[in-house]
Amino acid sequence: MTPAYLRLSLMTLASLSLWGQVEVVATGLQGPQKLLLTPRGNFLVTETNTQPNLGRLSFVSRSGTRRSLIEGLPSGTEVVGGGAGPSAMALRERTLYFTIGAGDSERRNATGASIHNPAGVSSPIFVSLLEIRFSLDIDQIGGTFRMTTANQATLADGGEVELDDTIGAKATIRILTSFPVAVPEGNGYRFSNPWGLAFSADGTALWMIDASQNSLSRIDLATGRSQRIMRFGNTPNPTPIGPPTIEAVPTGIRVYGDQLLISFLSGFPFPRNSARILAVNPATRTSEPFIGGLTSATDILWRERSGQRAQFFALEFSLTQSATPAGPGRLLRFESPEPTVVASDLRAPVSMAFDAASEELFILELSGRILKISAK
Questions:
Q1: Which of 58, 76, 82, 237 has the fewest CB atoms in 10 Å of its CB?
Q2: By the 8 A CB rule, do 48 and 55 touch?
Q3: Burial class (CB in 10 A: 0-12, 13-18, 19+), 63
Q4: For 53, which DSSP code?
């Protein structure tokens, strides 16, 4: 089967000269996971922490000034030592949806199997999808909402929590749906990692990818019912290092017509050219290759252009992820089967957003930076 991207018409690369240099918009973000553009062109960033309940949702202005929109969100040290907590987001008008990861739920026993944390967990709402209804447009809110452990207990019991930012705005929070924290696997468990969200084309549901369960789910916004649509299988390991197959590890999701474009990091040992983008048809539960030959892909984004085919952008976390330290990542642009490197030497890029009004692309790095690239 011919990959879909190979069917794109060859485009002139004369527009290369119009692309600006990489600019740093913001620095100092803590464990940033996902980036979302607000209606007025500012940013929302989910941030994790290795300490319990220090996750936060930050509002970052276009000029790079950060303030906490919500503090006290569930977080904790994950099994590999990093922070886990707030992650994927989707915003529609005054309602924000975002996922909470497994936090400190997972640990490893003496045999290396994943088990539930014998010391207990720091939050009862890990691995859930929260719905937050704000009283004002997100760009008009000037204060900070603070969640307490008592608030988390209320949410876990099925109640709603109303928070006040102390200067006039309110936020009503509920759990839209919760997911299994882990499912049995072998002598241990496989823990969940809800990692990407996208609204369905008709606006009635959310598509969600789970980077650990290697799956795609549909969540009904009216009922909160979650239905797993697809599981993504392993691929052969082309190297003599590690297991015989490599896990898919979906990382980014975008709606593209009646299809979903999903990026895949691919698992250990993270060989070069083994990551990919798939075009998934959720109606038929089928997929086809869209872009191949990537390395550690963390996001996919596409851009409409008047009178021309769309441009596609793929973000790569690192070209040498298994090295210590891991090498830099990069941003690729596809206007033909051969990609153009738009930006290299990126510091662990994890998420992208595109502002069609200003024709600027923004990249979030795990290093704590937001970068800007002009696409004019």
A1: 82
A2: yes
A3: exposed
A4: T
